[in-house]
Q: What sequence folds into this?
């Protein structure tokens, strides 16, 4: 399964304003609690910074750590090298962890802690970070099921997928998509990732439907070629595994065209595969599509690349892999075309 983790720059001002507004709402809710007030204190007084510190003495310190963490979170994207980016992100994690420890109900700290830990795992394969990210985001969802459901659902979907927890990943993506739709926003990436998880869980028809939605959204939005190409590649794979070979070839040809006539898009930054053998199934179909539209030496080169992809897929895939027979059929056809 191929899944796409978008890498977007974050506006510090927007984050700070959102966090400030959220913190103010949190304070106002606390001030409206039906609690007994100290003598001579009016309920309106509880909205002041002084009484906020009295009622939540650790919250002010938590907010300071959180704001510092946001600075590191944004700076990480500005770093010129991967090691520097990882180092700065770890600094952000330490601040968010401290904020969450001081104020366990700090939704913003949990949100950014989960996101940053998940991004670190994607960058350097830190599985312990994945577990900690899951813990933070699940805690946030338990604390406030309505908080940033579009992003939380997407992040949980990625994390569950990397753990092979496909049913939970499907539920998380569905919740994230519903949250995005409620705000008038729907992304091809979320639908495409949902389709990939459905395919790995065995629901090929469901995968086809979600890939088609992702393709429609990508076409309508006019966003990056990657937003269109990846679901086209995924749709080709799902159709091929359903036995619809002719339509699968047509979609693979469209995917290659969206990728500039190559399959390089499948190896782009932010795209990961689970299990690792999956990328070779995608590449095998893509190289076959290139061969079909090529002649002479170019056709032979594409067929050799397809043969290498299918051979590698079969070497890496588990013995009980449900798509092994299909890959073996492709390999035989390619070798016949090569005259072997």
A:
């Amino acid at each position: 399964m191929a899944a796409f983790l978008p890498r977007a720059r974050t506006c510090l001002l927007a984050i700070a304003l959102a966090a400030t507004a959220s913190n103010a709402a949190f304070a106002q809710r606390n001030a409206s609690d039906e609690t007994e007030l100290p003598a001579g204190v009016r309920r309106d007084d509880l909205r002041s910074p002084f009484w906020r510190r009295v009622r939540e003495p650790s919250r002010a310190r938590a907010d300071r750590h959180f704001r510092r963490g946001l600075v590191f979170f944004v700076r990480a994207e500005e770093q010129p090298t991967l090691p520097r980016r990882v180092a700065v992100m770890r600094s952000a994690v330490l601040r968010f962890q401290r904020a969450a420890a001081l104020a366990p109900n700090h939704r913003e700290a949990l949100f950014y802690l989960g996101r940053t830990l998940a991004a670190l795992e994607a960058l350097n394969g830190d599985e312990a970070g994945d577990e900690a990210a899951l813990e933070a985001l699940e805690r946030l969802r338990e604390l406030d099921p309505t908080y940033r459901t579009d992003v939380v659902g997407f992040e949980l979907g990625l994390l569950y997928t990397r753990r092979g927890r496909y049913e939970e990943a499907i539920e998380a993506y569905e919740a994230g998509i519903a949250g995005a739709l409620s705000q008038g926003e729907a992304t091809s990436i979320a639908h495409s990732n949902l389709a990939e998880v459905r395919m790995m869980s065995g629901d090929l028809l469901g995968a086809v439907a979600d890939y088609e939605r992702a393709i429609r959204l990508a076409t309508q939005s006019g966003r990056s070629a990657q937003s269109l190409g990846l679901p086209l590649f995924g749709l080709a794979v799902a159709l091929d595994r359903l036995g619809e070979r002719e339509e699968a070839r047509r979609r693979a040809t469209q995917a290659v065209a969206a990728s500039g006539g190559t399959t390089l898009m499948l190896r782009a930054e932010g795209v990961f595969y689970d299990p690792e053998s999956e990328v070779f199934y995608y590449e095998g179909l893509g190289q076959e599509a290139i061969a079909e539209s090529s002649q002479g030496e170019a056709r032979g080169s594409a067929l050799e690349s397809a043969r290498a992809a299918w051979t590698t897929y079969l070497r890496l895939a588990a013995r009980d892999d449900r798509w092994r027979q299909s890959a073996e059929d492709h390999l035989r056809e390619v070798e016949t075309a090569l005259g072997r």
In short: The radius of gyration is 24 Å.
